[in-house]
């Protein structure tokens, strides 16, 4: 039987779909075309667990959108994810962004750590590719791009973020600290801030300190103790913290550093009312709970984009995530990327076929991004997803979670809480 002749149309279609996820089959004749999104997270290296959660969250959202009919304004066009791995290295992140754009990605999403995300920003701006930051907190990521547009150095801002900034993290952390302490009927006086000394840790700690200075709560930050990230040993830093006689240690960690910090606090028998993080990974992931066990029990953390489990849709997504992840929990990382894909799909619905124009498509997508007002997301939020003049979502919110019974649960704010918090921790209950 003679093989069918490969026509020019068939060749071009196969070439276009070659930008799909590695291992995905070439679409059969009659299937709708795809819109390729470059999804780049750290799926190997120090942040691999968090990055893999982001990747799976994004894939679940794309699968749900495609199963529901795809992007209807684009004749049912399916979302296809072209995946990348930053390896938690800015240089690799930049190269991965260039690679996926070269293979047909028309929108970027990522990446997790602020350093790698900042490296991807330059690619987005140079290549005219809209970039939705699903996770990364450093204020400078969007602020620098907005300033370059204002100053006339760039014509268009292609970078937008649905994630709390470092400064908003700080404001909400100080507010939640105060509210939780008041609700518990206790009055901690001395807080020691400890943080990873990378871009993320510096940004988060500055936001927390600035918010504390502005709010002037009843408790004082008596010491600020950084460490090189990743740390080889934290015994000296914990000894400094212990010498400051803290009521509360407020850590800003990465996964690897949390695995050194929390056991060291226990080993040195630091007397505390509790450990309450201003906001960072490393204090709630399933892998961390398995490794740190009792060292994480009663630890609290001010986390972004936590799933709102009071919504039925969130519960459904969490169950599907648990099934496809081998039993892992739907958390801040997975829901942030899930919501990111929902936002991209909403933008494409509103921009329609203009998004497919090679000449004007990027600007059409940016214009639609600016007018976003999306309520139907899965994370705890202060309102619909909107983007301000800097490109940030002022309604991106945080929630205070606590490890109780070896599981992270929302304990604050009250309208999102699914369980009552425990503070001070039982072994440290005092005055």
Structural features:
431 residues, alpha/beta, Rossmann fold, 2 domains, seven-stranded mixed β-sheet, five-stranded parallel β-sheet, 13 helices, 12 strands
Computed structural class: alpha/beta
Major beta sheet, strand line-up: 7-6-8-9-10-11-12
> How many beta-strand elements?
12
Shape: globular
Strand content: 15-25%
Overall helicity: 40-55%
Number of helices: 13
Catalogue the unreliable spans. Answer: 1-29
Give the termini distance in whole angstroms.
87 Å
Protein architecture, described:
This protein has 431 residues and is α/β, with parallel strands linked by helices. The chain has two domains: 13-164 and 310-396, Response regulator (Rossmann fold, 3-Layer(aba) Sandwich), CATH 3.40.50; 167-304 and 399-428, Response regulator (Rossmann fold). The protein is built from 13 helices and twelve strands. The strands form two sheets. The protein has a seven-stranded mixed sheet, with helices on both faces. It has a five-stranded parallel sheet with strand order 2-1-3-4-5, sandwiched between helices. Helix 9 links the parallel strand 8 (248-252) and strand 9 (274-277). Helix 6 (166-184) crosses helix 7 (199-215).
């Amino acid at each position: 039987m003679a093989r069918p002749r490969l026509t020019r149309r068939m060749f071009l279609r196969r070439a276009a779909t070659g930008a799909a996820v590695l291992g995905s089959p070439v679409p059969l004749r009659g299937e709708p075309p795809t819109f390729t999104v470059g999804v780049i997270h750290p799926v190997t290296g120090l942040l691999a667990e968090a990055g893999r959660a982001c990747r799976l969250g994004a894939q679940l959202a794309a699968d749900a959108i495609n199963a529901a009919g795809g992007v209807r304004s684009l004749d049912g066009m399916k979302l296809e994810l072209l995946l990348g791995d930053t390896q938690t290295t800015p240089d690799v992140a930049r190269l991965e962004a260039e690679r996926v754009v070269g293979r047909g990605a028309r929108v970027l999403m990522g990446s997790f750590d602020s350093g790698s995300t900042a490296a991807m920003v330059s690619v987005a701006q140079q290549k005219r590719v809209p970039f939705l930051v699903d996770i990364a907190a450093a204020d400078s990521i969007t602020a620098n791009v907005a300033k370059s547009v204002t100053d006339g150095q760039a014509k268009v801002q292609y970078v937008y973020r649905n994630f709390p900034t470092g400064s908003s993290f700080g404001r909400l952390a100080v507010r939640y600290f105060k509210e939780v302490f008041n609700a518990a009927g206790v009055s901690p006086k001395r807080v020691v801030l400890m943080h990873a000394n990378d871009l993320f840790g510096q940004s988060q700690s500055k936001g927390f300190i600035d918010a504390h200075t502005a709010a002037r709560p009843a408790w004082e930050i008596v010491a600020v103790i950084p460490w090189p990230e990743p740390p080889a040993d934290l015994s000296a830093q914990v000894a400094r913290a212990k010498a400051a006689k803290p009521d509360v240690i407020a850590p800003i960690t990465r996964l690897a550093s949390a695995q050194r910090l929390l056991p060291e606090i226990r080993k040195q028998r630091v007397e505390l009312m509790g450990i309450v993080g201003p906001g960072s990974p490393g204090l709630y992931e399933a892998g961390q709970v398995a490794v740190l066990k009792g060292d994480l029990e009663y630890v609290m953390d001010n986390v972004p984009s936590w799933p709102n489990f009071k919504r039925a849709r969130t519960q459904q997504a969490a169950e599907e995530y648990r099934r496809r992840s081998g039993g892992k929990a739907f958390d801040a990382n997975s829901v942030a990327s899930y919501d990111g894909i929902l936002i991209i799909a909403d933008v494409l619905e509103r921009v329609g076929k203009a998004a497919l124009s090679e000449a004007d498509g990027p600007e059409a997508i940016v214009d639609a991004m600016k007018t976003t007002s999306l309520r139907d997301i899965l994370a705890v939020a202060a309102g619909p997803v909107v983007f301000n003049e800097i490109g940030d979502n002022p309604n991106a919110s945080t929630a205070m979670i606590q490890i109780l019974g070896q599981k992270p649960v929302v304990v604050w704010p009250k309208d999102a809480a699914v369980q009552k918090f425990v503070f001070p921790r039982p072994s440290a209950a005092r005055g």
